[in-house]
Design a protein that fits this description.
With 292 residues, this protein is of the alpha/beta class. It has 2 domains: 225 residues, Rossmann fold, CATH 3.40.50; 60 residues, no CATH class. The protein contains 9 helices and 9 strands. The strands form 2 sheets. A 6-stranded mixed sheet has the order 6-5-4-7-8-9, sandwiched between helices. A 3-stranded antiparallel sheet has the order 1-3-2. Strand 4, helix 3 and strand 5 form a beta-alpha-beta unit. It is elongated.
Amino acid sequence: MKANYQNIALKIIYAQSAGETFVVSRWLAEKSNNSISKGSGKRSLVKTSSKQGRYVRYRYPIKGQINDIAIDATLRAAAPYQLQREKKGRAVVIEKSDIRVKVREKRTGNTIIFVVDSSGSMGANKRMKAVKGAILSLLNDAYQKRDKVGMIAFKNHSAELLLGITRSVELAEKKLSTLPTGGRTPLAAGIDMAYEVIKAAKIKDKDMLPVIVLVSDGKATYSSNGTDAFAEAINSAQKIAAEKIKSIVIDTDASFIKLNLAEKVAEAMNADRFEIEDLQAQSLVAAVTLSL
């Protein structure tokens, strides 16, 4: 336990050297589920189709799929009809219409995929320092909540998976600290890679809670198919919304005249958007909690 507190302290010190850090509350808690109390390890309660987890209620089988039978509920459903049923020596007669199956819940962490714009528009030292500070704050919270993290960076002509999904926040910090910037902005490529990473991970763990955290000013200057780069990014963002993947956009646009491009991307993703200036002005990552 002492070693864990030391690790957390080191992370905070490192984050402060990279950029301003922010207070992180239960910003990834599900609206419809109870959040996990501080220190309990896992962040959220999720319904699961596996036989793991606590039995919380019963339901009718879906499309005739009978698995993990709720014996108590099934017996209660069959009880009123026992006098009318032909028992043939059986104590209780159960018919298919009586069967109920269990609904279970288990505690799970989130899987946070950071999608970071490392193109030339992010090259200003002050802005990148603020971005790293924001991400490191989220990483520190992920460490305490036992979330899994992954990291994608996009620049020039493609996106790169810097870090596959892992519980090692230390690896994520190392990748972030050495993140180079420069080149054009293939925004759609970054969003598309996040989508593919999540879809692949869902095959292995269908109960995972994916969250995309897109850190960008919303500018898109490169398209893989030669079409309008921003329109391509909007199409990719709409695909995230269609899959109902929880997402957050941290808008890093520091231009004097803003084009509100990140806002348009957030709308297409059905994501909450926060400006990097707000992140610096208050403990805004905690405010993200309220939005979710």
